[in-house]
Specification:
The complex is a heterodimer. Helices cover 24% and strands 29% of the residues of chain A. By secondary structure, chain A is an alpha/beta fold. Chain A folds into 3 domains: 178 residues, 3-Layer(bba) Sandwich (FAD/NAD(P)-binding domain); 115 residues, FAD/NAD(P)-binding domain; 79 residues, FAD/NAD-linked reductase, C-terminal dimerisation domain (Enolase-like, domain 1, 2-Layer Sandwich), CATH 3.30.390.30. In chain A, strands 3-2-1-7-20 form a 5-stranded parallel beta sheet. A 5-stranded parallel beta sheet of chain A has the order 9-16-10-11-12. In chain A, α1 runs parallel beside α8. Chain B has a 5-stranded mixed beta sheet with strand order 2-1-5-3-4. By secondary structure, chain B is of the alpha+beta class. Classes of the chains: A alpha/beta, B alpha+beta. The structure holds flavin-adenine dinucleotide and FE2/S2 (inorganic) cluster.
Chain lengths: 417, 102
């Protein structure tokens, strides 16, 4: 039998972790990866955080070193786009005209920033999304050369807020415009929104909510005026667009795969075609713990799905069944989140007795702990993780009482005698 | 310059040299198995867990509070456990032996 070929489209958190996991699982066939991004695959989360403010090179931020790909016999083709797939002959077509046959195809195509249909946005000067190393280079170049450094960030989600914090640190004047009534509205509870709002305000970053950006006018000097529907306007020498992502599904469509809010995959990350898998930001998948179909944008999801796919290809049964986790770093505040808070009915905020900022928000539905958001509090994060994973019931009174020493055993509901 | 030895789960000994950055980055650059560094080195993922050889703890110092908290409920953690993204490669680390946990 001839050697099996595994082709991976997209070499980022999902694709790269998959390739190395597949070797670890003992796959001996060919592994060939493609990414249109020309840069050696890198960590995305630091792009809006430490990497944006630091002087380090993108190589210091790589997912794997160049040599590691050679060591593991993984062929990495960068700067090439896959533009078509032929289902019957099982081959992909590249933008340089070349073709490659596959036995297994992995769609790790992720997502791309939404560029909203705001009038004048296309013509505006120095408008950048934040998704790639190239975007960061553009932003850094602008900062090092611009005389006037007024930045408007459109969108108060994690990426927008992290970028605002980093740009502030770099000496720019930053205004964040959020359409909803509060920042992080889709992803967290009002207490957390308030906390971050105050954090930024204290650092002199203006966070303005209920601001619907309507149009942008750019004058001859290249200064943009961002106009909101409430009549207010903001001058911007640079605009960061952080209003979310669209999933990259055009190749999946060519294969007629089932698509909902992402490419639909089963517990083994297989799409509706048996030898075609999808992993990472682009998947719509079932979470057994929460009994819900979801799409996630996180490193955890990309890495864990990658491992499931690798195991399945070599015939090791393993299903995707993990509790989602995520983090965000802004200024010197570290947020760690575990679980999915959707559908919560009750919140418990536990504030530790320390001088420094340290608290956690616990989301419950009845007795079930759904999720924990921990601010500068890794202990709350790991304890929350344990209780969620093990479906253990927490004694809420003990949790609220900060004099309870923070240990799982002390928080456990005592069995009734 | 510091020479750092990683001992992987399958008892491979890998000695590498580094001058700066974190020990996790050094391990990733040298393809040390079991050090994934999924969070990129911000103490959020615990996929860079090592145990410092008992004779070498003076070279690494003690874990910070967040490191200790991240490892507290990890079944594989012991008193020598560190998240090596929090260890900087410095002269003081020369000769250290780190056992990779995963
Ligand atoms: C600024 C920023 C900060 C973030 N912070 C965090 C964080 O703190 N914590 C966290 O958990 N997550 C964070 N995330 C999310 C995390 O980075 C993503 O979840 C992760 O990158 C998803 O990996 P992926 O491989 O699925 O997709 P992507 O990273 O989107 O990669 C997909 C790749 O596919 C390539 N591609 C797509 N189509 C083609 C094609 N046709 N041909 C060739 N190549 C193609 C793209 O070029 C891209 O490189 C952050 C993301 C960003 C942008
Ligand atoms: S690399 Fe994530 S905790 Fe060290």
């Amino acid at each position: 039998m001839s050697e099996k070929v595994c082709v991976i489209i997209g070499a980022s958190h999902a694709g790269v972790n998959f390739a190395f996991s597949l070797r670890k699982e003992g796959f001996e066939g060919k592994i060939i990866m493609y990414d249109k991004d020309p840069v050696l695959p890198y960590h995305r989360p630091p792009l809006s955080k430490a990497y944006l403010t630091a002087d380090t090179s993108i190589e210091d931020n790589c997912l794997k070193s160049k040599d590691s790909y050679l060591d593991e016999n993984i062929t990495l083709n960068l700067g090439v786009e896959v533009i078509d797939i032929h289902k019957e002959s099982q081959k992909i077509i590249l933008n340089n005209g070349e073709e490659q046959h596959y036995n297994y195809l992995i769609l790790a195509t992720g997502a791309r920033p939404i560029i909203p249909p705001i009038s004048g946005l296309k013509e505006a000067k120095h408008v950048y999304p934040l998704r790639t190393a190239g975007d960061v280079s553009n932003i850094k170049k602008w900062i090092s050369t611009a005389d006037s450094k007024r930045v408007v960030v459109i969108g108060g989600g994690y990426i927008g807020l992290e970028t605002a914090a980093s740009l502030k640190k770099m000496g720019t004047h930053v205004v964040v415009l959020e359409r909803e009534e509060r920042i992080l509205a889709r992803v967290t509870a009002p207490v957390m929104s308030e906390f971050f709002q105050k954090l930024h305000t204290d650092k002199d970053v203006d966070i303005l909510t209920s601001k619907n950006v309507e149009s942008i006018n750019t004058d001859e000097e290249g200064v943009n005026t961002v106009q909101c529907s409430d009549g207010s306007s903001y001058a911007a020498d640079m605009i960061i667009v952080g209003v979310g992502v669209n999933v990259n599904v055009s190749l999946a469509k060519k294969l007629n795969l089932e698509i909902e809010n992402g490419i639909k995959v089963n517990e083994y990350t297989q799409t509706s075609l048996q030898n075609v898998y999808a992993i990472g930001d682009n998947t719509y998948h079932y979470n057994p713990h929460y009994k819900n179909w979801i799409r996630l944008e996180s490193v955890q999801n990309a890495v864990d799905q990658a491992k499931v796919t690798a195991a399945h290809i070599v015939g090791n049964e393993k299903i995707y069944d993990t509790i989602p986790w995520f983090w965000s770093d802004q200024y010197d505040v570290k947020l760690q989140m575990v679980g999915l808070s959707q559908g919560y009915e009750e919140l418990i905020v536990r504030k530790e007795e320390t001088e420094s900022i340290k608290f956690s928000v616990w989301y419950f539905k009845g007795d079930e702990l759904l999720a924990v958001d921990a601010i500068n509090n890794a202990k709350a994060y790991v304890i929350g993780t344990k209780f969620i994973k093990e479906n253990k019931v927490i004694d809420k009174d003990k949790l609220k009482d900060v004099t309870t020493i923070f240990k799982p055993a002390n928080l456990m509901m005592k069995e009734e005698v | 310059m510091a020479k750092i030895t990683f001992v992987t789960k399958d008892n491979q000994e890998i000695t590498v040299e580094g001058t700066s950055g974190s020990v996790m980055e050094l391990a990733v650059k040298n393809n040390v198995k079991g050090i994934d560094g999924d969070c990129g080195g911000v103490c959020s993922c615990a996929t860079c867990h090592v145990q410092v050889d008992a004779a070498h703890t003076d070279k690494t110092g003690v874990a910070s509070e967040i490191e200790q908290d991240m490892l507290e409920l990890d079944d594989d953690a012991n008193e020598y456990s560190r998240l090596c993204c929090q260890l900087q490669v410095t002269e003081a680390m020369d000769g250290v032996v780190l056992n990779v946990v995963k």
